[in-house]
Specification:
165 residues, alpha+beta, Alpha-Beta Plaits, six-stranded antiparallel β-sheet, two-stranded antiparallel sheet, 4 helices, 27% strand, globular
Length: 165
């Protein structure tokens, strides 16, 4: 089963809870084995600045699902948590789940590009990804730690979550 990494993001409707619920939903999908999750990070929005900050994380999982079936599951979880797809790019959203990496595969399909097109330029993806897999090497041979060092910082802050009972 390929090792996959999923980017999680939210800035609407209690973002921390949105990510926590998404992680539970991911773990409940048949043929997905959730291995680990990064810490949660607060970041400024990429697009219009007149929206709340985002909360981001990365999940590591193994799956027997093919890439498009995994994408369908991610989009289903988004929809169940109130995601509405709008024309505005980088606007506010309840939940965004991005397939960042699917093993060492390069995928270029109309519905899916993997590695995710923005992975190498986004500190809110690279930092949690490096937290989970500091030795990770992308399909193009680039090390995640090298990418993180070269990436501009946008004031990313780790969120300390209360301990669950």
């Amino acid at each position: 089963m390929p090792r996959c990494y999923i980017g999680l993001g939210s800035n609407q409707a209690k973002p921390v809870e949105q990510l926590q619920r998404a992680l539970i939903a991911l773990a409940d999908v048949q043929l997905i084995h959730l291995i680990a999750q990064s810490g949660f990070y607060r970041s400024a929005p990429m697009g219009p600045q007149n929206q709340p900050d985002y909360v981001n994380a990365v999940a590591c999982l193994d799956t027997a699902l093919d890439p498009l079936a995994l994408l369908d599951q991610l989009q289903n979880i988004e929809q169940l948590q109130g995601r509405e797809r709008k024309a505005e790019r980088w606007g506010p959203r309840t939940l965004d789940l991005d397939l960042l990496l699917y093993g060492q595969e390069n995928i270029d399909l109309p519905r899916l590009t993997v590695p995710h097109y923005g992975l190498e330029q986004r500190d809110f993806v690279l930092q949690p990804l490096a937290e989970l897999a500091p030795e990770l090497v992308l399909p193009n041979g680039r090390r995640i730690t090298d990418l993180l060092q070269a990436c501009a910082s946008h004031g990313l802050q780790r969120i300390e979550l209360p301990m669950s009972e």
